[in-house]
Design brief:
six-stranded parallel sheet; about 160 residues; binds NADP nicotinamide-adenine-dinucleotide phosphate; alpha/beta
Length: about 160
């Protein structure tokens, strides 16, 4: 069984959909029951509700799993303590494998949410778990919030970049 954390968010939903499509047995860790219906709709029924700073929630979430796909809440100041709590529970419960959803260029200190992911990556090297670290670039979907402005006046506030066909 694979636990997916941050499962109420857009990344978690996408990862779960992909795993369910491959026939994987999955469990979701979410922060509240409000995500239950949406998860059920994509075929996820094993759901643990809990906060990532709660060791009891981590124990409940990882018990009986053999792998975790960890997605920390976006721009969380608690990235490292959340990951430490997860690793502690994973080691206690004999979880073998951990996939960490990091970010492209975590070594940029001027971006605290990137820098925190580098600290997590460093901590994972000595966790004793089989670790896979993914470093995704900014999602294309991020552009949607600024789409109208970009196609209207241009991403640089100057020339529109949509060419006439
Ligand atoms: N967006 C990008 O372009 C991009 C690119 C590369 C990597 N990433 C990384 O992808 C990860 C996920 O991003 P996302 O945008 O999918 O996240 P998101 O949509 O913000 O989802 C985060 C989820 O975590 C939950 N959460 C918040 N605090 C929690 C807590 N204390 N305990 C348990 N759950 C909690 C949130 O629940 P509530 O909403 O109920 O608070 C939400 O459902 C982040 O680590 C981000 O750095 C993002």
């Amino acid at each position: 069984m694979i636990l997916v954390t941050g499962a109420g968010g857009k990344t978690g939903a996408a990862v779960l959909k992909a795993l369910v499509a491959r026939g994987a047995i999955v469990r979701a860790l979410v922060r509240s029951n409000s995500y239950r219906a949406a998860l059920n709709a994509i075929g996820v029924h094993d759901i643990v509700v809990g906060e990532m700073d709660d060791p009891h929630a981590w124990s409940q979430a990882v018990a009986g799993t053999n792998a975790v796909y960890h997605i920390c809440p976006n721009m969380s100041p608690h990235e490292l303590p959340f990951a430490r709590a997860l690793v502690a529970a994973a080691v206690t419960h004999g979880v073998r494998r951990l996939v960490y959803h990091s970010v492209l260029h975590p070594q940029i200190e001027a971006m605290p949410h990137h820098w925190a992911k580098l600290r997590v990556e460093e901590m994972l090297f000595s966790s004793g778990l089989e670790v896979t670290i993914l470093q995704p670039a900014a999602y294309m979907q991020n552009s949607l919030a600024e789409w109208d402005r970009m196609v209207g006046v241009g991403a640089d506030g100057g020339r529109p970049f949509r060419r006439e066909l």
